[in-house]
Amino acid sequence: MDTFKKLKSFYWPYRHLFFTSMVLLLFVNVITVAYPIILQITIDDGITKGEYGWIPYLALGFIAVMIFRGLATFVQQYTGDLFGITSVYKLRNELYKKLQYLPFRYYDNAKTGDLMSRLTADVEGFRFFLSFGFTELLRFVFTLSICFGVMFYYSVSLTLMTMISLPFLAIAVYRFDKLIHPAFRGIRRSFGRLNTNVQENISGINTVKSLSREGFQTSKFMNSNEDFKNREISTSNIWAKYFPLMELLGNVGVIVILSYGGYLVIHGDLKPGELVAFYSLIGYILDPIITLGFTINMFSQSKASGERLLEILEADEEITDNENALQAERLTGEVEFNNVTLQYFGDEKAALKEITFKAQPGKVIGLIGSTGSGKTSITQLMTRFYEPAGGAVYIDGKKVNEYSLHSLRSNIGFVMQESFLFSSTIKSNIAYGKPEASMEDIIHAAKMAQAHDFIMELPDGYDTMLGERGLGLSGGQKQRIAIARAICLDPSILILDDATSAVDMDTEFKIQEGLREVMKGRTTFIIAHRISSLKHADEILVLENGRIVERGKHDELLENGGPYERIYKIQFRDQQAILQSQTG
Ligand SMILES: Nc1ncnc2c1ncn2[C@@H]1O[C@H](COP(=O)(O)OP(=O)(O)OP(=O)(O)O)[C@@H](O)[C@H]1O
């Protein structure tokens, strides 16, 4: 019940709907028990005694009871459903909000398909229980207590005899629950894996097709599907074994009524009408007892779903605003790293070691080094995507964690290696970080990013709808829109992480010409593999294995005889080779 207790804040505010539904359920149960009682009176006081005049009145009473019951059932089901739907609406919103604020570290280990199945199938499983499961559990309690009450009133000994099989039934139900709960948890996990497979396959369809791995992907999916199927089969086996057993044990009561009840009637210890009423009552009791398996099953499923939802809700947000966080309107953009170390979760060695540098406002810092040397990691500490394990990062003389995340990040324009474009218009993609931006701001940003001309050539210009992940644009065009997006923020710090790697040299040159204008008054970090992209930087930091191994201006570094010079020579040699092949 811990899961339900923890999720209480989502359904408890709507308890009035739940209690209305429950009171009506009790009412419906009481009325239901009136049927066999009316039947008993009709037989014992009407037919047996020859008082036929009563029968039309009893029939009318019966119709009235049925109408009442129908109305009560309608309202009871409606309020019960509303209870589930409204609770889950709030839960779904909360889950989505939580996902927005979870740190990058969470996503490093999470799988999209699995998260999707939590937000859909698990939420739905939980709703189903709130709407129907609770009601079914209470129906069980109400029906059993009311029916047994009436049965005891008619005959104590016959009631006790009908209860003979109940302890066995209880054992069967208990064992069923013990098996079915883990089985359902397994099904939910397996479904999450299945979703992940589909999602990854669709997202990576280019890679799959270009490497002709369709067969491999299909068999990978088939394995997951097989696992899902096997789990479903083994769960349905549990059902198949226990359901008839529970039904059989329940039916022992019917046999007892017919044999022992018949004996009592013959000896005049029970009236015939009472025996008929008994027979109907045991029918009412058996139904919830037998479906108790189904209800428990639903309970188990929703408990498993609730646990998976709680895993998201309870995940540590880690990187949040500190108390009294500063709301900096506009930073000047002085960035300082003081002996910073970074260790990613699960990694044995540090990704950054003893990083120390200071970037004055408006300066351009170039970061170069082999892949995995830590260039991106440096920039991700400025935006607080991750926290350093040692040392501190300062912006405008204050530690980055002193600012509110919003004010910090809205001062930093980040163009990533692979920026994500949403399936909406180009205009709204550019203005994504600054929704209040005017059309002039958007066009200005696009012009700076050398994107305006190609946007104007598109049929709907800035109103062109982009497909998912920017489908319909070339890699270079997507990147230019991403650059425009960062510029649109008018940030005081601009980070270009391999931002021009997807464009040709000519476009790169043009973008850089434009960026030179953009960089004015902003501290800019350029991560690049091509020396040509950062040779004008005020300071170049050369990284190797998470350490700064060289620093200085382009000309100074060329004289150093270190890694920078080596990279330059390789790239220069390549250029020479290209030129020779073109001229020669
Ligand atoms: N989210 C992460 N979780 C765990 N390890 C990570 C994560 N991101 C980066 N790393 C590791 O940290 C190290 C530095 O990575 P980083 O991305 O900063 O390098 P980089 O110099 O930007 O490389 P590239 O030029 O390929 O982009 C690498 O060893 C990488 O494997």
Automatic annotation (TrEMBL):
Protein name (database record): ABC transporter ATP-binding protein
InterPro entries per UniProt: AAA+_ATPase, ABC1_TM_dom, ABC1_TM_sf, ABC_transporter-like_ATP-bd, ABC_transporter-like_CS, P-loop_NTPase, Type_1_exporter
A single MF term (Gene Ontology): ATP binding
Keyword Transmembrane: yes
Membrane topology: Multi-pass membrane protein
Subcellular location: Cell membrane
UniProt keyword DNA damage, yes or no: no
Pfam families associated with the record: ABC_membrane, ABC_tran
Domain ABC transmembrane type-1: 19-301
Transmembrane portions of the chain: 21-43, 55-75, 137-154, 160-176, 248-266, 278-299
UniProt keyword terms in alphabetical order: ATP-binding, Membrane, Nucleotide-binding, Transmembrane, Transmembrane helix
SMART domains referenced in this protein's UniProt entry, alphabetically: AAA
Organism: Heyndrickxia acidicola
Domain ABC transporter positions: 335-570
Top-level taxonomic group: Bacteria
SUPFAM superfamilies attached to this UniProt entry: ABC transporter transmembrane region (SSF90123), P-loop containing nucleoside triphosphate hydrolases (SSF52540)
